[in-house]
Amino acid sequence: MVKQWFKSGSPWIWMTGGAVSISLISVIGLLAMIAWKGLSFFWPSQVVEMHLDGSVAKQTVIGEIYDREMVPKSRLEAAGFDLSGYNSEQIERLLVKTGNREYVELDFRWVLSTDIKSQSTPAELAVFERSKNGNFYGYVARVLEDGKVVTDQPIERLHELVERAVDLNDEALDLQNSEIGHINYELERLRLKEKSYQLDNDLTEEKLAELNARRAELREDYKVFEKRLFELRKQAKRDQVVVRDMRGEEVTLPLYQVLDVWFPNDMGFFAKVGHYLVQISKFVSDDPREANTEGGVFPAIFGTVFMVMLMAVIVTPFGVIAAIYLHEYAAKNAVTKMIRIAVINLAGVPSIVYGVFGLGFFVYMLGGSIDELFYPEAAPSPVFGTPGVIWSALTLAILTLPVVIVSTEEGLSRIPSSVRHGSLALGATQAETLWRIIVPMASPAIMTGLILAVARAAGEVAPLMLVGVVKMAPTLPLDGNFPYIHLDRKFMHLGFHIYDVGFQSPNVEAARPLVYATAFLLVTVIIALNITAIGIRNHLREKFRSLEH
Amino acid sequence: MTSNPQKPSFKTDRSRLFKDRFAQFGITSGGVMVLVALLLIFFYLLYVVQPIFESAKVEKRMDIQLTQDKKYLGVGVEEQTEIAYLLGSRGSVDYYQIKGESAGKLLDTLDVELDGNVTAFAESAPFLGQYAFGLDNGQVQLVKPMFTVSFPGNQRVLTPRLSYPLNAKQLIVDEQGQAIRKFAFSHFEDKTAVVAQTADKRVIFASFVAEENMFTGEVEWAVERTELDIDGRVDELLISPDTSRTFVRSANQVYVFDSRYASEVELFQLLAANEENANLVDMNLLAGANSLMLANDNGEVSQWFEVNTDDGRQFAKIRSFETPKSKQVKLFSEYYRRTFFTTNENGQLGLYYTTSEAHLWQGKITDKAVQKFAVAPRANAALLLADDTLTVVELHNEHPEVTWSALWQEVWYEGYPEPAYTWQSTSASDDFESKFSLVPISFGTIKAALYAMLFAVPIALASAIYTAYFMSSELRRVVKPTVEIMEALPTVILGFLAGLWLAPLIETHLPAVVALLVLLPIAMIATAFGWTKLPAKVRHVVPEGWHSILLIPVVLIVGWISFAMSAGIESWLFGGNVRQYLTNELGLTFDQRNSLVVGIAMGFAVIPTIFSIAEDAVFSVPKHLSNGSLALGATQWQTLVRVVLLTASPGIFSAIMMGLGRAVGETMIVLMATGNTPIMDWSIFQGMRTLAANIAVEMPESEVGSSHYRILFLAAFVLFIFTFVFNTVAEFVRQQLREKYSSM
């Protein structure tokens, strides 16, 4: 019976079915995991106060429970823990984020569940998000406003004061980045101007005087702004909060370092949702802090979008023209067929190869020549002869060119020849047929190609590591200084951000949730783009199927 | 509206025709340009790579006729190769212009301060640029020809001068004041030593340490002298720049002394170093001073360096070079690279690179015997002195260390116990020899791709077959895009998950992974069998072609069980720690980021590629073929194996090729999920370094135009060609298949 059953081959059918199950589980599981880990990071989790005793000295630990795992007892005993009082084979271990980085050795620690003597979640426990040294957990002892203790509703006042400090800090940062940044930028331009006059042997007395006058003017402005900046900073430093931490000691936190304060154990569901949304919006709109391990990813989002848009602008016309040439104008012979296969195969060439090409050809050869011709005054520091956003866009344009060509050609070949013949028969020239009939009909296909190209470019990291991406860009490629778009600047990228924070940062444990969040953001964007592209393509197929009959 | 109804004209408007022509021209030229730009990638890579395979070139720049009455002991050239200097036997230095309009002109003659008559002359290692005169009073004077750079009127002018590395102090080598016949010296950092043979045939090793006199502030030399015991005549003397080794050649024997400690200079090894039926005629040290080069009078040159043997470190003959037959071969080394030059009495010059065993260039430069030779600091020019003619030659020898055999074969590097495949591209020190073997990283690439394919091919193909052949069509419409969407997932995310989530997970749950491999198929078959035992009523509720949905909970439960009992298995079978068990019992090294992790993560990236193409191939097998087979009584499975798969096999082949192409070139996953160590080991628990990851790691730091830079381009070119060929084959097979189907 069993032998018969095996002979029928039906178990093997089940096995192949099982392979599909495995693929599906891994695909969906993977996406779900990224989504869960990325999104749960922002949820205000409970802060637990634990009293420990046993294998560690008697102490109190306050923090968020980050992770839990079962560990074989034998392994723990081998590591020197005394667990003679416990019978179970496995013992639970908790990973607790204790924060307070400057006062304890590690802001993450493993706690054996057997050591926890008692555990509670007091409503008064506060979480301080700080601009330096990560979170701080503890009880608010008192609030100091301008050195005086606030007695009347101190917690409400604390929120107000934090908000005030944050506003002042924002204002100071704004001043520093826009006004003072502008002055520095202008000064640098004046220096280059002087040098270029020198190189042309054209530095006359008047010109020098003019430059110096402008410099003096800028320095005057600078003094004014600097004074204002110091004033703002001084004001921001006015208030403090005294917090009792898990060691039982009182620590004074200056409020200018505090970005936010909340009491997660005291929050209702809706308060938590509100906090959650605020945190997500901060993640999307803030600059990174602490070597990218905290704060937001705004520059990375901006860099990715800017580079991809630049790439789209470059790749679309070229890709479409090449596709139209291949499909409409090129002779239908073996050579064209070979070219077509070659173009398709270029899409399969490893992206790092394009990166190498971009570095050698664009950055060193093209960029180097541009520097020699147009920016001799900046030497020896390169302007375009160094990795930058324009070279990244160009490299990715070449990388995605096959995608656009293949997709556009597919769209062109789906247009029934009867349409073409009809137009030609009515007296239109080939160019008119193309422009008025074919291209509009193929535009969804072009769109599909473009979307696929954008999706591929947004996720590509390896070539960018060679041609322009950096872990921390001080300025965006777009700002208020003339000429506003700075194509020579380096930029940040979501994909590279993941690589950098996940693998190069000193505190991987602290950065991991942030990496998941970034990964989720990137995956969402790319999958959404792909689904859109697939949707357009399917819609298009249906449309032309009806045209054919 | 604009046309005139009364006069129908069949002539096309000229501007329309012009526009049409213009569009045709514009699109054609634009299209061709784009396609050419794509071709450019290929040619640009080739253009950058090509110089490393170019052979060296030697071109004569000029001959200078020297004044007849002088005898020259040594020559040298300055870094820009503008000025050459010749050291004369009376202690004078002549400077000649050798570049520009006034080339050939004697610029200046400077005299070295000497307290006696010159009886001997010696040169330091090339990179130190020092020369020394041995005098008849047993003293030695060091001198270094140098140049002062000034810019009068924005023009760079070099003014020759002499510098005395020891502040014009002469070294008293022989206290008895005997004339020095032969000697060698080194003065590098704080080490100064001279080995000399005096007129009365004693060989003295003298080490000098500068000491400041506390009272007068004057520098005095603390000298330590040792007499070396040599049987027979002394032909040549050498000291390594760090003074740790002293070589004395006596006919066909080379005495190697350990001279690290001046107070106890002892014989380290005695080499009988001549080739069969030949006698030694010259010896020299290569750059870096680890290798001793010995020339024989039959033209053979051999390289010796220290290797670890059972008796400790010993000099051993590593390789030898055939140079043109001649009696008086002389050897010269370069500043930093392991190139050496030979000259002989026939006026011939030879260029060789030791490590890559490359014969770079051989040829005749002059008709006379070459007496003196010097290489420029940047190794882009050389001087040959023959009789009274000074010949300047230009050298084009950018990448001597790279040859096809050095890239792909085992190479015996200095200090290594045996020939090996090594990739070690950079180090801090100047005279470090880069080791460019592409074998370990190519091996890593293949290893990574292979493990990935091992994981991906069964799952992807089985899924493709089921989806295309057995699955119900409404389910297929959901499943196919779901799996395919994975192809769009950025690999940086897969790499990050592999490195930070999967690697630690596998490390702690290794038994679970093995258990999954065993349990999953068993569970599937058990489920299938159980299903046949269910009452028909239940079975008919689930439509045909939904097996995989039924199996999802089974897979999940088996996965959960495997992981839950992982710790149990671990303490039951492996004493609670698999890693320790692997290391101690099986002798396997376990890296956290290993091939297993890469295999799974990269396999995951490859699955959609293979799945998508294979599924298309199986699905588009004409239905009448399978229907015919079924009608003849074959079972579903028989039809699949004997008819469908056979027909679709070219498509499946092309799917696997495409997958392989992707696995070979994948960068981020390997970069993040392995330790990136270039080792050669098939072990699944160890990592690797691949071509692509290697480029990503090293490219940003490599100097433009260097050998390293070009070799990385070569790696990219290899990847390009490899994937391009694989994809072309796959694409070609696919197109053939499509034509075949359409004719069926």
UniProtKB/TrEMBL annotation, chain A:
Residues 158-235 form a coiled coil. GO terms for cellular component: plasma membrane. It holds the Pfam family BPD_transp_1. GO terms for molecular function: phosphate transmembrane transporter activity. PROSITE patterns: ABC_TM1. The keyword Zinc does not apply. The keyword Secreted does not apply. GO terms for biological process: phosphate ion transmembrane transport. The chain crosses the membrane at residues 12-36, 297-326, 338-366, 389-412, 433-455, 514-536. Residues 301-533 form the ABC transmembrane type-1 domain. Keywords: Cell membrane, Coiled coil, Membrane, Transmembrane, Transmembrane helix, Transport. It is a multi-pass membrane protein. It is found in: Cell inner membrane; Cell membrane. Belongs to the binding-protein-dependent transport system permease family. CysTW subfamily. NCBIfam families: 3a0107s02c. This is Phosphate transport system permease protein PstA. It comes from Pseudoalteromonas maricaloris. The gene is pstA.
